[in-house]
UniProtKB/TrEMBL annotation, chain A:
This is Nucleoside-binding protein. The keyword Endoplasmic reticulum does not apply. It holds the Pfam family Bmp. Residues 1-23 form the signal peptide. Keywords: Signal.
From TrEMBL, chain B:
This is Nucleoside ABC transporter membrane protein. It is a multi-pass membrane protein. Its main location: membrane. GO terms for molecular function: transmembrane transporter activity. The chain crosses the membrane at residues 12-38, 116-135, 147-166, 199-217, 246-268, 280-308, 329-349. Pfam families: BPD_transp_2. Keywords: Cell membrane, Membrane, Transmembrane, Transmembrane helix.
């Protein structure tokens, strides 16, 4: 019995190594996820991107994912595990993986890394992110048109530049429709916590907000707005099924085209370290259908989207007036420079709130 | 016919020795069935979990790195639990230690401060952890407040305090508002033991802590006191042992160890202070303490074993495409069987026939 068990084990191990050998000529591509793939938000969209990649190049590559990797000491190990398993191109899909990715990248110069939403790069480490503020601008226009109370509710995650620039873009857009528009901001201090997000939405509605916008990942706020008969915008993914009469539109992260492009470059041997910050024109994100609004508002939104895509409309067109009433230095010619948006650490005029940590 | 659990007259030493083996055996059987249902090869899966991580130097280092904070915290907790003092807030003491030690690192950043920085960080972290643990201990002794509740609630206070610091005063000025301090200077980081690996001095410190705890509990009067106060409070009082004093002492020691583990984690594998430095080490360590039967050597083995399941779980995700949820189920089943089998040390199964006068035991 024991002998046969040993033989069986040996046979199985051998079978395993044979199948590994046949997979060896395929490029191995690894993904590190922050949440579970079923979070219906951030991680879900990255998983959709990976699936698009597999659909396109599945015969040439083999993908591996590690999900629920915390942004602490475990991240470095998880990334290194993927390297040691033979992955040659690794996507680390959350800001908190920046330093761990850099550490592993320095250790394995022959492996290529792609880090989402960070700002540290290396010879073998690219960064990629999207100009979501463009989508926020369109949302700001819609919100100002649709709000009866003139008060918008905004659920922030963390006061980092990406979120701050989103709030500013929203307000700059809304002010072109209604100069007296107000925004109430609640910092949830989390990316994903349905309970907290729901509480924030309730508090904002109680303070008079009738359009809820969020920079957190769960559909909880959408559900609350739906229950209370208010309007809301989705985040990261299509959330219309959580508020069929509530969702105005949603910023959809569409990573697929970027993943396909980068993997093709890796296969062709032309991969190099880059800083990709794409907008509507490069399909780094998309807008969900404009719903629950009159036709004129829908047309306005579509026109704005077309103008931004064509490069005719820039949300941070100079002059931009800061919260203190002073004009913000314009470093990018006609518009604020990319660097000023990527490091945005101020509110624009008309936001009646204090930026945390300022 | 009925199956009941009957308390044994005395604990069974045979079962105490074989119960972990029975537990592992039952886990393997259960997981084999589960893997088979999932359509994964059970032998390869078990190999990925248990054998593969033990066969290369890299994974062994990672197991040690993962086990280091768990073992250090669990040793401190075991002293508390043996003395019947219920410190549930090691997570908070861990975070406060990390904060206190980081204070030195942040304040000396970019200066030419010398080799004293790291030792100062370690000492300060241990002191802060101890002081933080003394809050629930003193509330217990002076006012009779439940140390379980107070120590647990102080976890959230520590968590939010750390959060405030890295978002406000200690935020990296070049970090685009992201909630983290700048990377610590080399003098403020825990030295690595092996070039190119992640094994660090903290693992040696953890081993020393295990050795000292073993000597303390096995060879000293204080250790005897701790055990007597916990096991037989009345006898301890007759013996002139001061239970309150022991609550204070064990809380302080366990707080100090948790704080030390905190700064070692921050100044070692992480390299800077940020939210989320602990994936719940302070709570997982409670499991490690009990899995190790509150015995220093047992805790060392339990800590390494739990670390193995983490590393193995990752390798199974990579090699076999087994979802993370299965790893969690696996860990849960393992703990369930270990605790279930442990109950056989003090209890035994007995078959009862309600219709007859004679109840027949299994032996």
């Amino acid at each position: 019995m024991r002998k046969s068990l040993l033989a069986l084990t040996a046979g199985l191990l051998l079978a395993g190594s044979v199948s590994a050998a046949s997979a060896a000529d395929k490029l191995k591509v690894g993904f590190i996820y922050l949440g579970p793939v079923g979070d219906l938000g951030w991680t879900y969209q990255h998983e959709q991107g990976r699936l698009a990649l597999v659909k396109e190049l599945g015969d040439k590559i083999e993908t591996t994912t590690l999900e629920n990797v915390p942004e602490g000491p475990d991240a470095e190990r998880a990334i290194e595990q993927l390297v040691r398993a033979g992955n040659k191109l690794i996507f680390t899909t959350s800001f908190g993986y920046m330093d761990p990715t850099l550490k592993v990248a320095k250790k394995y110069p022959n492996v290529h890394f792609e880090h989402a939403t960070g700002y540290k790069r290396d010879k073998n480490m690219s960064t990629y992110s999207a100009k979501w503020y463009q989508g926020r601008y369109i949302q700001g226009l819609i919100a100002a048109k649709m709000s009866k109370s003139g008060v918008l509710g905004y659920i922030g995650s963390f006061p980092i530049p990406e979120v701050v620039s989103g709030i500013n873009a929203t307000m700059l857009a809304a002010q072109t429709i209604n100069p007296n528009i107000k925004v109430k901001i609640i910092w949830a201090n989390t990316w994903f916590d349905p309970g907290k997000e729901a509480d924030a939405a309730k508090a904002l509605i109680d303070q008079g907000a009738d359009v809820i916008m969020q920079h957190t990942d769960s559909p909880a706020a959408m559900q609350i707005a739906s229950e209370r008969g208010k309007l809301a915008f989705g985040q990261d993914s299509e959330m219309i099924k959580f508020g069929p009469k509530t969702q105005l539109t949603s910023i959809l992260d569409t990573w697929g085209p970027y993943y396909i492009e980068r993997v093709k470059a890796e296969l062709a041997g032309t991969w190099k370290s880059e800083d990709t910050w794409g907008g509507l024109d490069s399909h780094m994100f998309a807008m969900a259908p404009y719903t629950n609004m009159p036709d004129d508002v829908k047309k306005m939104a579509e026109d704005a989207q077309a103008a931004i895509t064509a490069g005719k409309l820039h949300p941070f067109k100079c002059p931009v007036i800061g919260q203190d009433g002073k004009e913000v230095e314009c470093k990018g010619g006609a518009n604020l420079a990319d660097g000023q948006i990527l490091g945005m650490n101020f509110y624009v005029k008309g936001i009646d709130d204090k930026l945390p940590g300022k | 016919m009925q199956l009941v659990l009957e308390k044994r007259a005395e604990r069974s030493n045979t079962i105490a020795l074989v119960s972990p083996l029975i537990a592992i055996g039952l886990t393997i059987v259960t997981m084999t069935i589960l893997f088979a249902i999932l359509g994964k090869n059970p032998l390869l899966a078990l190999h990925a979990y248990f054998v593969a991580p033990l066969t290369d130097g890299y994974s062994l280092q990672e197991i040690a790195v993962k086990a280091t904070p768990l073992v250090m915290i669990a040793i401190g907790l075991s002293l508390c639990y043996l003395a019947n003092a219920w410190n549930i807030g090691a997570e908070g003491q861990f975070l406060i230690g990390a904060v206190a030690g980081s204070w030195v690192a942040v304040k000396t950043q970019g200066t030419d401060a010398g080799a004293w920085v790291l030792p100062a960080m370690l000492v300060l972290a241990a002191a802060a952890g101890a002081l933080y643990a003394l809050i629930p201990a003193i509330c217990k002794v002076k006012f009779g407040a439940s140390e379980i509740l107070t120590s647990l609630m102080l976890v959230y206070v520590a968590d939010l305090f750390l959060d405030y610091l890295v978002r406000g005063p200690w935020r990296d000025p070049h970090g685009f508002n992201f909630p983290t301090t700048a990377e610590f200077d080399p003098v403020a980081t825990v030295p690595l033991l092996i070039e190119g690996g992640r094994l660090h001095l903290g693992s040696i410190i953890a081993l020393l802590v295990v050795a000292v705890a073993a000597i303390l509990l096995g060879r000293t009067i204080k250790g005897f006191e701790i055990r007597v106060v916990g096991a037989a409070p009345r006898a301890a009082r007759f013996g002139g042992f001061n239970a309150n004093q022991l609550i204070i002492l064990t809380f302080a020691v366990s707080g100090a160890l948790a704080g030390l583990a905190g700064i070692i984690e921050v100044a070692g594998p992480v390299g800077h202070l940020q939210p989320g430095i602990s994936p719940g080490y302070g709570f997982t360590a409670i499991i490690v303490a009990f899995l190790g039967r509150l015995n220093p050597l047992g805790i060392l083995i339990a800590g390494l074993f739990l670390a193995l399941t983490f590393i193995g779980g990752e390798q199974a995700q990579i090699a076999m495409k087994i979802p993370l949820d299965v790893t969690k189920v696996f860990q849960g089943i393992l703990l369930f069987y270990v605790l279930a089998c442990d109950s056989l040390i003090l209890y035994r199964f007995k078959v009862v026939f309600p219709n007859r006068q004679v109840a027949r035991g299994t032996h």
